[in-house]
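To whoever is on call:

I kicked off a structure prediction for a single chain this morning and the downstream step that reads the tokens threw a length-mismatch warning. I double-checked the sequence; it's 442 residues and nothing unusual in it as far as I can see. Pasting both halves so you can look.
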Amino acid sequence: MSDAAFWHRLQFGFTATYHYLFPQLTMGLVWFIVFWKWRALRTGQERYAQAARFWARIFALSFAMGVVSGLPMEFQFGTDWGLFTTYSGGVIGQPLAMEGMFSFFLESALIGVLIFGEERLGPRKHFLAAVGVAIGSWLSAYFILVTNAFMQHPAGYSMAVDGSLQLASLSAFLRNPWAWIEFAHNQVAALITGAFVLAAGGAFYTLRKVHLEQARLYLQAGTAVGLVTSVLVAFPTGDLQAKMVAHHQTVSLAAMEGRFENGPKANLVLIGQPNVRERRLDNPIELPGALSILAYGTYHSDVAGLDAFPVEVWPDNIELLYYAFHIMAGLGTIFIALMALANLQRWRGKLETSRSLLWILMLAFPFPFIANSAGWLTAELGRQPWMVYGLFRTNQGLSDVVSQGSTVFTLIGFMGLYFVLGLAYLYLVGNEVVHGPKVTHG
């Protein structure tokens, strides 16, 4: 990989990773807000409306940060990846335009209504506004993910005379099977983030012995949804995603598992260190035959290793890919265990008095953000060295008019700006959390 490619990728990777900290939270919180608005409408109980108002304010701050941090990515397609845009713009331009429409028009307008329009609209119309925000948020996500799915598993395209890609079938593009599985897996993971943040808020207020009625709502919703989604992100959505990789990006699966040799009864690696230079996995702890079962359904299935492929099609950072995948999978397993224990204590009526467990729930909220970031690293590093898998290599997509020095300069600028914005966001959210749920109307 050239130095220019490294800096272009680092800049885009940094902005994308930072940006996604916020959409995963908003997409995870929005359906809790809808649920509480619905409960308030059905029961007339103020506690549900109060919960919806409080988390809607957190949602709005996070959405604003997501918009601000995401805008540079749109421009980076032209500045950093101009040749890729020329090559694939006839395909990816359509869903990105639709994402902008749903994100900036539908979602942004309705968020204002959600925050400030409760008294003017009344309960029923305000509930519909919350539903509109949720639908817009998730539709926006699908258009982004279907674009990424095209880069992972191209569908619905044709080749133009000049060698660029054109959209041949919008239906085939939008129904890309990779997109549906990726969307399900990604959105369930976002719900995990929302559930852990809710549970952390409930644990925080319970430990402080303030807002106890609201804290109970947050703990109940966060731990219940957290358990269900922690299971779903592994099975079936994670399992289906892994099977897609096994069938369509076999070399990526081998790199994710640090597997260098072919053969049946492939072991699933729990712990180990990939030694790419000597083409082996050091100090492995493995589950016998489990990878063959998970990837292809039978214990005797043959799983290809990296040695079955030319080195030039190997992912170009196998070590980081391997560790990102195992961090994601390891944290996912911990999430199931933690939420199972929390629900057990809740069903026994002891969760609110289990101080040690409350402390763990309060401090655990950053880990879904880490797991989601590791999951995206796995997907994007696994796709390398291709920008559009099997069609267009990453090194072919670099802009030829933007200097390496300019890329480094703007990367430093983004880091500084995002650091300041991050501090402002933490201050504003922290201020909301300290003041807690308030009985106020927009």
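Update from on-call: the warning came from a stale cache, not from the record. Cleared it. Sanity check on the structure: Strands lie at 157-159, 165-167, 268-275, 280-287, 386-388, 392-393.
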